[in-house]
Specification:
single chain, mainly alpha, 2 strands, 4% strand, flat, DUF4133, membrane, DUF4133 domain-containing protein
């Protein structure tokens, strides 16, 4: 009797759904949950549906557009790299050489 083995192709590939890659699927899901909560709050407040539906529809369309644009612009890890790069300091200033002198002496002590 023959044994059939299934090969999982693409095990290390990122998740892709309708062109959205990796974490952007989670951003879209979070935004849709927020829109659902906003709809419920506006409905409970008592606003008419003819006001709520265009607001939620416009917000939902702009959410889809923004997440798709981010996904295409930055790719899988690009947004994280972009945000990390913006947090780097432009310059590091030291007023004393004391930190570097101590490093030199520690290396000599460890070498012995």
């Amino acid at each position: 009797m023959a044994v059939v083995y299934h090969v999982n192709k693409g095990v290390s590939r990122p998740i892709v759904f309708k062109g959205l890659k990796a974490q952007y699927i989670a951003y879209l899901a979070g935004g849709l949950v927020a829109l659902l909560i906003l709809f419920a709050v506006l409905y409970i407040i008592g606003l008419p549906l003819m006001v709520i539906l265009p607001v939620i529809g416009t917000a939902g369309a702009s959410l889809f557009w923004a997440v798709d644009r981010l996904s295409k612009r930055f790719g899988e890890h690009g947004l994280k790299k972009y945000l990390a790069r913006s947090r780097l300091p432009k310059a590091i200033r030291y007023r004393s050489r004391k930190q570097f002198i101590h490093l030199k002496y520690r290396k000599q002590i460890r070498a012995k």
